[in-house]
Amino acid sequence: MRFAAWIMAGSAAALLAACGSETSGEFTTQTGESAEYTIDEKSGETRMTVDGPDGPATLRSGAEVPLSLPRGFSLYPGAKVVTNTVVKKPDGEGVMVMFETPDAPDKVIAHYRREADAAGIAISVAMTTERTVMIGGEDDGGRLTFSANANAGAGDGEPTSVQLIIGRKTGG
Fold it and tell me: What sign does the CA torsion over 115, 111, 45, 94 have?
C-alpha cells in the first residue's frame, strides 16, 4: 500500500471519530488486507494496523505524535505542528508533517531545498504560484522521496501552512 493511501485511510478513521462514530474498529482494505484502527478520544490520535502479505504495517497520526524526521531533515524553526503522521511498513517508512509558520512560503521552501540537496535529493518538481511554493524529488536510487508544499495565509496575520512528506525505503 502506498504512503498516500495510508494517509487517506488514517484520515478516514479520524473523520469517523469526528462524526461521533466508533473510536475503534476493523475493516478490509481495497486489496483484501485485514486492518484495525483506534482513535484516542482525548488527543484525537489515530492508530491503524494493516496485516499485509509482507508483515504488519502501522500508522499513527495526530498533533501529539512524536516527530521523527529522517536524518538531515528538521522541523522548520519556530513552526507549530498541526498534525504529524508516521507510517511504518516492512519495506520502509514515511512521515507527513503539517505545520504553520509566520514566515513566507519561499523562505520555508528554501530551508527544505537546502536540506533536500544535502540529503542527495534531486528536485524534479518545482512550482510557484501567487500564494504557493512547492518542491519534490528523490535521491539517485529512489530510496528517499521528498515533497514540501507551503501555502501563504489568506489574509494579514494568517500563517503559512506547510505540508512536508518524506518517505524512505528500507527493504530490497
Answer: negative
The full length of the chain comes to 172
Report the alpha-carbon angle 14-5-138, nearest 5: 125
CA distance 165 to 172: 22
8 Å CB contact between 37 and 12: no
Q: What is the DSSP letter of 33?
A: -
Whether 61 and 14 have beta carbons less than 8 Å apart is answered as yes
φ, ψ dihedrals at 68, nearest 5° = -140, 85
pLDDT single digits (tens) 2-15: 444 544 454 444 44
With cut-offs at 50, 70 and 90, classify the pLDDT of residue 16: very low
Residue with cell string 512536508: 164
pTM of the model: 0.84
- Contact predicate 143/167, CB 8 Å: no
